[in-house]
Design goal:
There is one protein chain. 40% of the residues lie in helices and 14% in strands. It has 425 residues and is an alpha/beta fold. It has 2 domains: 234 residues, Glycogen Phosphorylase B (Rossmann fold, 3-Layer(aba) Sandwich); 156 residues, 3-Layer(aba) Sandwich (Rossmann fold). The chain has a 7-stranded parallel β-sheet with strand order 3-2-1-4-5-6-7, sandwiched between helices. A 6-stranded parallel β-sheet has the order 10-9-8-11-12-13, with helices on both faces. Helix 1 crosses helix 16 and helix 12 packs across helix 15. The radius of gyration is 22 Å and the shape is globular.
């Protein structure tokens, strides 16, 4: 341990990656903030993805690392039990007990605090406590209220889930809600991404003084010049996200089925859609057979994708947390069209930092507005960059304050707890 620096434990469900998917980026954000003031011991609860950037990251992470490699629980889809409901009854979404957690040889004598990232990391904290480890102050990060996200999925897919699977998912949501309530009650501080999620926890009778907003930090990216399509060159829309993530799969299928034909038909213009991200399955790859749609998949860096795009689209219909990709588009200088759900939790307003549309015809119309009106796009980009500038450093400062049990720093309203109060421009 360095002189004067206290040790903290960070239990993360994934490898922290600067250029990864949302959960990996938030983990990286936390790790860097913690390492700036503390000696960090990192436990990764799931099996790391076999990705090239993960290998490079191992050599540079400012922490001692223990990989538990427990992986994700198997999906009940097609399981031999044959029943989704029976599976849920016998396999809780997050186990209450685990085998003994191995304690690394270089473990510190005492921890000032433990940051537990997402509910799936809570069994590790429990087992460490049972083993007699002094885990210090408990800070729980619920960047995604998982029970809420699951209930939204049930509502959005009620016509395709079937009665039995819907009932099984309701049982899973109820169990997640019960675990969330217990862990928020036990935590010294609980972190959420947005004012909306904080209000939800307070409505569930939790102490407002212990619920803190730590927004997703905007990525550090060099702004790009606006794209100007040459005569005869198509306009390009960009979707970026984890392509194995159910809300993203639903968003893409909905967009390509219900919105894309309207965009392509408007004014006879040539428009293309590029889909970028890790983990594309057959359902996403099949979208590449649609005229004008290209599934690029995983890339080493997203900057070239933004450079050839006119705008980012975020057509999510369900899910939780906040979209780091929207902040990324703001930082790099591309306008955004998003649904209300995709923009939820961000201090933005329709017509100020982005355009918001929830119906297929409205979404297609918003895309056309941006393609037709360069001045509108420029205003959205300027306002988005201003928001990102205001947010710099605030999430990291708020995390450190929560770890140390200190009051939130000043100027935090730009980091997610300012309401979206109407449009301008």
């Amino acid at each position: 341990m360095k002189q004067g620096r206290q040790a903290v434990l960070f239990i993360s469900p994934s490898v922290p990656l600067e250029q990864g998917i949302g959960v990996e980026r938030r983990a990286f954000q936390h790790l860097c903030a913690l390492a700036s003031r503390h000696d960090v011991h990192l436990m990764i609860t799931g099996q790391p993805k076999p990705r090239a950037e993960a290998e490079e990251t191992w050599r540079t992470l400012p922490a001692s690392i223990t990989v538990l490699g427990r992986g994700e629980p198997p999906d009940p889809q097609g399981h031999r039990l044959g029943s989704h409901l029976l599976w849920e009854l016998h396999h809780p979404p997050i186990p209450h007990r685990l085998p003994a957690v191995p304690i690394p040889a270089a473990w510190p004598e005492s921890l000032a605090a433990t940051l537990v990232f997402r509910l799936k990391s809570t069994p590790i904290w429990r087992e460490l406590r049972r083993s007699g480890v002094a885990t210090g102050r408990l800070v729980l990060d619920l960047d995604d209220l998982e029970a809420l996200a699951l209930r939204r999925r049930i509502a959005a897919e009620r016509d395709i889930l079937g009665r039995e699977k819907a009932l099984a998912l309701r049982l899973r949501a109820a169990r997640l809600a019960r675990l969330q309530r217990e862990m928020v009650w036990r935590a010294d501080a609980t972190l959420v991404c947005s004012r909306e999620d904080r209000d939800r926890l307070i409505a569930d009778r939790h102490d407002p003084a212990r619920i803190r907003i730590v927004a997703n930090a905007p990525p550090e990216l060099e702004p790009l010049a606006p794209r100007r399509a040459s005569p005869g060159e198509p306009y390009r829309l960009l979707f970026i996200g984890a392509l194995g993530y159910s809300p993203n799969i639903d968003a893409l299928q909905w967009f390509v089925r219900d919105i894309w034909p309207q965009i392509r038909a408007r004014d006879g213009r040539r428009v293309e859609l590029e889909i970028v991200g890790y983990g594309a399955g057959a359902d996403v790859r099949a979208l590449g057979r649609t005229p004008g749609v290209r599934v690029t998949g995983e890339v080493a860096t997203v900057t070239p994708c933004y450079a050839r795009a006119d705008m980012l689209v975020a057509p999510l219909r369900w899910g939780g947390g906040t979209r780091i990709k929207i902040l990324e588009a703001f930082a790099i200088g591309r306008p955004v069209v998003a649904t209300t759900r995709a923009a939820e939790g961000l201090p933005v307003a329709d017509g100020r930092e982005l355009l918001i549309a929830d119906r297929p015809d409205d979404f297609a119309r918003a895309v056309s507005r941006l393609l037709d009106d360069e001045g509108l796009g420029a205003r959205l980009i300027a306002n988005g960059r201003e928001l990102v500038a205001r947010m710099r450093g605030i999430p990291q400062a708020r995390l450190l304050a929560a770890i140390r049990g200190e009051a939130d720093p000043d100027g935090a309203d730009a980091a997610g707890d300012r309401p979206a109060d109407g449009a301008n421009g």
